[in-house]
Amino acid sequence: MKTDIQIAQEAILKPITEIAATLDIQADELELYGKYKAKLTDEYMQKISKNPNGKLILVTAINPTPAGEGKTTTSLGLGQAFGKLGKKAIIALREPSLGPCFGIKGGAAGGGYAQVVPMEDLNLHFTGDFHAITSANNLLAALLDNHIQQGNELQIDTRQIVWKRCVDMNDRVLRNVVVGLGNKMDGFVREDHFVITVASEIMAILCLASDMKDLKERLAKIVVAYNYAGEPVTAGDLQAVGAMAALLKDALKPNLIQTLEHTPALIHGGPFANIAHGCNSVRATKMALKMADYCITEAGFGADLGAEKFFNIKCRMAGLAPDAVVLVATIRALKYNGGVEKADLNTENLEALQKGIVNLEKHIENLQKFGVPVVVTLNSFVTDTQAEISFVKKFCEERNCEFALSEVWAKGGEGGIALAEKVLETLEKKESHFKVLYEDDLSIKDKIETVAREVYGAGYVSFSQTALSQISRLEKLGFGKFPVCMAKNQYSLSDDPKLLGRPVGFEMNVREVYVSAGAGFVVVLTGAVMTMPGLPKQPAAYSIDVNDDGIITGLF
Residue 365, class by beta-carbon neighbours within 10 Å (0-12 exposed, 13-18 middle, 19+ buried)? Predict the structure, then answer.
């Protein structure tokens, strides 16, 4: 059996200018990054701004398990299937982070015969967007420390610095560091911290900004610290905005590549969903809606994290309204939720499937609360039995969900035709009545409790004294109307990654709350979630290599 990277490397790619031509994009409306990658210009975005919007389809999933779900694979296969049916579709996804690529999760280019290519480029440096975000983030950190060193005119309280440095790598030893060691000219000695680049507020800002003007206005609002009077000090106060914007100028433009079957894909931005808002850029999504009749996008991790934030943050801020949702599951993952060990997932087990399918049930209920029609798809494995498939199909249809089997990993677009037809039928027959879960005027505490109860199934939310004090301060500073961005482990509906299935009535623990004022949301840290992941005992990096001919191996 061929690996994902072998399939990708054997693919015959079309020049990106040919892919662009299928969308009526002229050569001078592209900024080329070699033969197979390009950025779309601001002029092109302006040109298509008056086009009618296509249909917006969100792809999400159950909680991730070691058994695998295949959300990105399904998104890409669905886009390819639309092409097989003669429909004009475009896919809008996030860029992968180097951290998980070299860690445990691997890349994010899809899999099998439903991939975006060039796969190696996408999973590694791509067009440099993440490097630009990292540089802008760390420029702001450097200007902050330099300001303190040069006399501290803004009276920054060094015990209340909240801006952190970042790097796009899983590097646990950088979570808590001491900076400024050495002599007097080496800066003020203080505790500092790193987050992974995809958790940086600048990543969130880039993905929510509508244009350069909006980007700069958001950058200016970033709260970096508080002064001795307890007032926020911003990036604007530090005169950092112009230089940061200069670093982000090209990163603000969406990237165009292709699938294995030459379906166009806009890949742009990449905030994590477990610690950020988990969606590709607003610019790419809005552009895609103007470029094709169907825009297929996705939100990170399970629907409890990615889809909730797609609805409550991205759609709220950008004025988007999805027309349908595809919810991805696998029989293997459902059996894992039912208590089956990973080694035993290939054996038919209807009892475990019945026990574990409650995880899928909760995600269906959650999505229906937002008023959007739901199509459940099973990402097919050869070990799935007809009895197991029939059980899941009946379960979904009894809950007013459409159902389709997906075989896109093995068959590409051809294997997604049944799903594509079911999505088209849903778009035609079921109207979306999209609504957010809570209103802006709710208090921060009430918003947190609403998400915890309604989406996660918590019975009670406990707040640390630190979190309560932080909430009080943020509301006094005028940030109370912001939506909440919940930072939670991705493996469970609860804040305990070991509670699989559908935990009910548990206690959700909120330990810290802070504002991302430029992004426009309040971040809520729950349980033991980390904003800087670590590497596993056997990192994926151990298997990645380049042979003497320059061919990359081991990337997945």
Answer: middle
537 is catalytic: no
Ranges of the chain with pLDDT below 70:
none
Q: Could you give the dihedral angle defined by the CA atoms of residues 212, 218, 220 and 221, in that order, rounded to the nearest 10 degrees?
A: 170
Q: Is 381 a catalytic residue?
A: yes
Whether 163 is catalytic: no
Q: Hey, what are 64's tokens?
A: 């991730």
Q: Which of 14, 84, 88, 105 is catalytic?
A: 105
Active site residue 528: no
What is the separation of C-alpha 433 from the centre of its chain, rounded to a whole number of angstroms?
A: 24
Widest CA span of the chain, in angstroms? 72
- Whether 301 is catalytic is yes
Say if CB 240 and CB 246 are below 8 A apart.
no
Q: What is the pLDDT of residues 419-459, one digit of tens each?
A: 999 999 999 999 999 999 999 999 999 999 999 999 999 99
Q: Give the global pTM.
A: 0.96
- 60 part of the active site: no
pLDDT at 35: 97
Confidence at residue 108, expressed as pLDDT on a 0 to 100 scale: 83
Q: Name the catalytic one among 71, 216, 286, 332.
A: 71
Catalytic residue among 163, 194, 272, 301: 301
pLDDT (tens digit, 9 = 90+) per residue, 389-413?
Answer: 999 999 999 999 999 999 999 999 9
Catalytic residue among 38, 273, 307, 404: 273
Say how far apart CA 171 and CA 167 lie, in whole Å.
Answer: 8
| CA–CA dist 77, 75 (Å, integer) | 6
